[in-house]
Amino acid sequence: MRIDSILAKKQTYSYEIFPPKGELPLEEACKVAQELALDHPDWISTTFSAGGSGNSQNTAAICDAVQNSLHVTSLAHLTCMGATTETVDAYLDTLSRAGIENVLALRGDRVPGREPKDFEYASDLIAHIKSRNPDLCIGAACYPEGHVESPSMEKSIEALKRKQDAGADFLVTQLFFDNELFYHFRDLCARGRIKIPIVVGIMPFTSKNQIQRMAFTCGATIPSRVIKRIIAAGEDPAAQAEAGVVYAQEQLCDLAANGVDGLHIYSMNKPQMAHKIHAALKECGYLAS
Ligand code: FAD
Q1: How far apart are CA 13 and CA 15, in angstroms?
Q2: Is the pLDDT of residue 115 over 90?
């Protein structure tokens, strides 16, 4: 099913998974998807070579399994940094053959030695997909704290408007830990004539090291209340991870109470963590019990 059609009817709940890296078998990711499907998400998205990991070769196969074996709507990520029109078209054809109707069109991170080829920005990729595969529903990324390379929030919103005008049907946010920043961003989008739905992406922190990495790769602000919880958890990795789940549950329930279009969980291939979040969203009434 097209994700924009789902968003037109309800507030959504969805998960992201990433394909296995290196020698890990494809079946591992399929098992994760199978576990996540038990929560009946509206869709499951699969990343494409995130962080320049080069693990894109299994994305289409996982999307196929999600869509056709698990019968959950699939959202396939696609990045265009260093891609040619030929490779993009071949990937789109693979998705079409698997009956996948949704693609998240991204530029991809800058990595040394990988320069743009046929597409400079995500908006170029979106325009290409829209003209070549007009039946595909196209998602795009957005940044409540501005994109790390963007000189200002104004420029970040202008880039979003370009993606909307090129044909994006919905947006998914970068992770953040301070909901007030998202509410402010949502107002800026409304003022900047961004009319497509904005699905909120949340990643529970799992450790002090992981949240520090996130802050530097995504430019996410870490509020002092988060730092205090990590300090309170001490050096115990399990306590730090549990603090992350509890914080994400509170963050998500607050977002739910503030009328978001959808909630998307960066599951990090951890179904048990995802189930805990799912349970909290049932408890706060966002999801039906
Ligand atoms: P763009 O929209 O092209 O923006 C990139 C930068 O260029 C921004 O600073 C923007 O303001 C600026 N810009 C845009 N258009 C113009 C213009 N015409 N003139 C001047 N400046 C312009 N990465 C992966 O590798 N794989 C994934 O699967 C993946 N999934 C993601 C999912 C989500 C929900 C999010 C939020 C990010 C994801 N990323 C992924 C990371 C993403 O690739 C990076 O954040 C990347 O740096 C930017 O991608 P984009 O599509 O937003 O790029």
Answers
A1: 7
A2: no
Q: Phi and psi for 142 in degrees, rounded to 5? A: -140, 165
Q: Using CB atoms within 10 Å of the CB of residue 216, give its burial: 0 to 12 exposed, 13 to 18 middle, 19+ buried.
A: exposed
Average pLDDT of the segment spanning 144-164: 97
Kindly report the protein residue whose alpha carbon is nearest to atom 36 of ligand 1: 174
Whether 16 is catalytic: yes
Residue 24 pLDDT exceeds 70: no
How many Å lie between the centroid of ligand 1 and the Cα of residue 260? 22
DSSP H helices in the chain: 3-9, 26-37, 59-68, 85-97, 122-132, 153-166, 179-191, 208-218, 224-233, 237-257, 271-283
The atom of ligand 1 lying closest to the CA of 162 is 15
Average confidence score pLDDT of the chain: 95
CB atoms closer than 10 angstroms to residue 257: 12
Q: How far apart are CA 32 and CA 267, in angstroms?
A: 10
pTM above 0.90, yes or no: yes
Q: Whose CA is nearest to atom 42 of ligand 1?
A: 108
Task: Scan for tokens 């497509």, then name that residue.
Answer: 196
User: 135 CA to middle of ligand 1, Å?
Assistant: 23
